[in-house]
Specification:
Largest sheet of chain A: 2 strands, antiparallel
Number of strands of chain B: 10
Strand order of the largest sheet of chain B: 6-7-8-3-9-10
Radius of gyration of chain B: 17 Å
Largest interface: A-B, 21 and 30 residues
Distance between the termini of chain B: 38 Å
Strand content of chain A: under 5%
Shape of chain B: globular
CATH superfamily of the largest domain in chain B: P-loop containing nucleotide triphosphate hydrolases
Shape of chain A: globular
Structural class of chain A: mainly alpha
Largest sheet of chain B: 6 strands, mixed
Order of helices and strands of chain B: EEEHEEHEHHHHEHEHEEHH
Structural class of chain B: alpha/beta
Number of domains of chain B: 2
Oligomer: heterodimer
Radius of gyration of chain A: 30 Å
Chain lengths: 623, 236
């Protein structure tokens, strides 16, 4: 009993059961079975199985760290790994038993006893707290009836239907297959396999933690890289396809799955590379730190050249499908940089950014379309209209900013949200239908033509986005260090004090909204040219929310952060496409995790880092 | 002619009548103290003069010019500078950047010189010029707020409760500084709850009570005034 009460045991118990709940949950929503269809390594391990093993592995690694902090000895840590593995398997095994015909009676037993146990426990607690006997009996009756209604009705449903699927629709044969490692027919063997695998994975996690630093890091690199390449097999294959001949490709992949030999080779290579880096990485970094300033400048220059060359060659390295993703990412980078002027620099929470995007897209559509709604039928080209789209979006930004100038914070956010909705409704309205086509939208938008060549592929459109983003990045950096940038910073900090410094806050805010809108217009125009049609469904509030999220996830007011944020939040869902609807679950989980673990963003700006650190310091001081 | 003349102003927060016909004047080179209890209208008076609020009736004239309808940011270039209540430094800018913001309205190029003189007035700030203002102690933040207000080269400096939340030792330092600034020829309008300290450095003072001037006299006389002693100085 004492052992159970100690802090360490409670950690093991809580985290082990949490990991078990995770496995149960992912199973019950059908994720494990769905992921089982995706093999990470050919005929060896599927993504579903990997998920089953990753949970105890990662949890016990984490638990080992917690125990180590509190001075737990290695044997205890190893034991904890075993327990975590066992606890992870436990909930799913119980469900497996409930699901089988032989042991279903256990489920009924639990369901029938649950109301009485729960009622007695609560009543006992009330009794201990010194409640009157009538009150205790009343509570007992109430709880028993309430819980009983639920559990007895479930029992009834199960009895009539004969299995769990009537309630837990994803607890089906596929799930049983994955959980038992294909031993559905022989349940005890299946449970034993699953339990041992889980315990083994948990043990492996704690062994990994106890290893010396160098091999540990090498193994983490190796496992991590191999798993990533395997899990994103389709993407990896698409990239390789551009650079490797098809025979070699067939050696490495069977369709989209890494072959066993290739996986082994990749694991060995990445582990060896990880080993070298773990051994000598710090020394390399130290040497770079010691380089004198002139060679450092040369090194920086070489780095820049490599980076530019990489950015220029990117479409040819990654192929058409991924170039298309890159263009979408670029469009969102443009919008992120624009919105960041309002949110990051001036502190104006604008939730109606989609307005500018829609204005840019529709301006380009109407002016260049060669379809029935095109006003000029090809007289205007993409290049002529881009500046017009930019100006139109700026004008829209200006007009919408005027009425909300006096609002702050939350109120501003809601008002701008309203503008976004208005634009969405206008686009679909009958009133503007003769001009922009209502729900059907505008079609037949020609691709940009560059010196006689039609830029019709994503590989080519990529360069337009790249140039636009670079221009925008340059302007954004210059603005940040300018007198105007200072004005915005002061307003963001304290509007009243900014006024007391002699800043015309109304003018500065108008300027922020207007400039912020500009890139939204360009992004919209590029989007229209890329897709070739523009219709209202493309312009929902989720555009605004996505742009806002990528700024916050990347790091507010941080330009590199915005680029990374766009890659993660816009690019990842595209790459995760094969995980169908579960990618939104993963996306949501990622957002929550990010905000808990790294609220300052992936690449925070100098100011935000400071704020976060001083918050942490204050917290430490308070303790 | 007085540098600042406040004539019968009525200022409202929505329907709340905060200033009820307040009048006073400040001559060039004076230190004037506005004292009074919570809710007497001291801060509202400063906000009205500095243009952050507009009076519904009455006039404020500065250097012979009517300014009660002039926007706050334009008044800064006319030479009225305010140190807001609760210091109001830009926590996420460095000390140096804060001072630069103070010189925002200036067109001339002597800002570097003035930065030096600000640092000679407050040596502590020079030691911390690369630090974020939010990391300074309360007293240092108050110094920074005053130094920043001076960067716009004001003729009239409005100080809102400079002693608020500071340890007694630091309060003495702040009032010494205010005295020195006045000696350099800056006119000062000081709003304070710490009537004792304020009246020691002021030339004249006004006692505010529910939005009106209750008593006005020289600082020396106010210190002797029985009502003032009882109510604001805590002397029986």
């Amino acid at each position: 009993m004492d052992l159970l009460r100690s802090q360490a045991s409670r950690t093991v118990l809580a985290l082990g059961l949490l990991s078990g709940a995770f496995i149960l949950f992912t199973g019950a929503v059908g994720m494990i079975a769905a992921f089982h269809d995706r093999e990470v390594v050919d005929r060896f391990i599927s993504l579903g199985q990997l998920l089953l093993l990753m949970a105890p592995f990662v949890t016990s690694y984490y638990v080992a760290g917690r125990l180590d902090e509190h001075g737990g000895a290695p044997p205890r840590i190893l034991a904890a790994g075993l327990v975590v593995g066992l606890l992870t398997a436990l909930p799913s095994v119980v469900l497996l038993l409930f699901n089988s015909d032989e042991f279903r009676f256990l489920l009924f037993l639990v369901l029938r006893l649950a109301p009485f146990v729960a009622a007695s426990a609560i009543a006992w607690q009330r009794h201990q707290a010194g409640a009157e006997i009538q009150a205790v009996l009343g509570i007992w009756l109430l709880v028993a009836v309430l819980v009983g209604i639920v559990t007895f009705s479930f029992a009834l449903i199960f009895e009539i239907k004969g299995d769990l699927r009537s309630v837990l629709v994803n607890i089906d044969r596929d799930w049983v297959d994955v959980i038992t490692f294909d031993n559905r027919k022989d349940l005890p063997l299946g449970i034993a396999t699953f339990g041992l695998a889980s315990i083994g994975a948990g043990f492996a996690g704690s062994v990994l933690y106890l290893m010396p630093a160098v091999p540990r890091r090498a193994l983490i690199y190796g496992l991590g890289i191999t798993t990533l390449v395997g899990a994103f097999g389709e993407t990896a294959r698409l990239i390789l396809q551009e650079n490797v001949d098809s025979d070699t490709l067939r050696e490495i992949f069977r369709r989209d799955t890494l072959r066993q030999n290739a996986a082994l080779a990749l694991f060995i290579i990445s582990t060896a590379a990880g080993f070298l880096w773990a051994m000598y990485g710090s020394k390399v970094r130290e040497n770079i730190g010691n380089i004198d300033s002139s060679s450092r400048r040369r090194l920086n220059f070489i780095g820049l050249v490599i980076f530019v060359a990489f950015m220029l060659l990117l479409p040819w390295l990654i192929g058409r499908t991924l170039s298309d993703v890159a263009v979408t990412i670029g469009i969102f980078v443009l919008m992120g940089l624009g919105l960041n002027i309002a949110i990051g620099l001036a502190g104006l929470l604008d939730l109606g950014y989609l307005t500018n995007y829609a204005v840019g897209a529709y301006i380009l559509a109407v002016l260049t379309s060669i379809g029935p709604l095109g006003l000029f039928k090809g007289t205007f080209t993409f290049w002529m209209v881009i500046p017009l789209a930019l100006l139109a979006a700026m004008f829209a930004g200006f007009i919408f900013a005027v009425p909300v100038l006096r609002m702050r914070g939350d109120y501003l956010a809601i008002a701008t949200l309203g503008f976004g909705e208005i634009i969405g409704k206008l686009a679909i309205s009958d009133w503007l239908k003769p001009l922009i086509g209502g729900a059907q939208g505008v079609q037949a938008i020609p691709k940009p033509i560059f010196f006689g060549a039609e830029l019709k592929n994503p590989e080519q459109l990529y360069y337009i986005v790249l140039v636009a983003s670079l221009v925008c990045l340059f302007v954004s950096i210059r603005l940040n260090n300018s007198r105007t940038g200072r004005q915005w910073m002061a307003i963001r900090e304290d509007e009243d004090v900014a006024t007391a410094m002699g800043i015309d806050t109304a003018r500065a805010k108008l300027l922020a909204f207007t400039l912020s809108a500009a890139t939204g217009g360009v992004a919209g125009a590029i989007f229209a040219a890329k897709v070739g049609t523009v219709f209202p469904n493309s312009f929902t509030v989720f555009i605004s929310i996505n742009v806002l999220s990528l700024i916050i996830v990347g790091g507010i007011a941080s330009n590199p952060g915005i680029v990374v944020g766009a890659i993660v939040l816009i690019g990842m869902p595209e790459l995760l496409r094969e995980f169908s609807e579960f990618r939104f679950l993963l996306y949501g989980a990622l957002l929550i995790l990010m905000m808990i673990k790294r609220p300052q963003g992936l690449i925070p700006s100098k100011i935000v880092t400071h704020e976060h650190q001083s918050g942490v310091k204050a917290k430490l001081a308070a303790e | 002619m007085a540098l600042l003349e406040v004539n019968d102003i009525h200022t409202y927060y929505g329907n709340i009548h905060a200033l009820k016909g307040l009048s006073f004047e400040v001559d060039a080179g004076e230190i004037i103290a506005l004292i009074g209890s919570n809710g007497a209208g001291k801060t509202t008076t400063l906000r009205t003069i500095s243009g952050l609020m507009a009076p519904r009736e009455g006039s404020v004239s500065y250097d012979g010019e009517e300014i009660s309808r002039t926007r706050a940011d334009l008044l800064v270039s006319k030479g009225i500078s305010m140190v807001p209540e609760g210091r109001g430094v830009f926590a996420k800018l460095t000390v140096e950047e804060n001072l630069d913001m103070g010189a925002y309205v200036r067109q001339d190029s002597d800002v570097k010189e003035d930065l030096k003189s600000a640092f000679s007035l407050f040596p502590r700030l020079e030691e911390r010029k690369k630090q974020f203002a939010g990391t300074l102690s309360g007293g240092e933040q108050q110094m920074l707020a005053i130094a920043r207000a001076l960067m716009s080269k004001p003729r009239l400096l409005l100080l809102d409760e400079p002693s608020m939340g500071l340890a007694p030792v630091l309060v003495d330092g702040v009032f010494d500084t205010v005295q020195r600034i006045a000696n350099d020829g800056v006119t000062i309008l000081l709003v304070e709850q710490n009537a004792h300290m304020a009246l020691q450095i002021a030339d004249r003072g006004y006692v505010l009570q529910s939005g009106e001037v209750a008593i006005s006299d020289t600082a020396a006389n106010l210190q002797q005034n029985e009502t003032v002693q009882k109510t604001y100085l805590g002397i029986d």
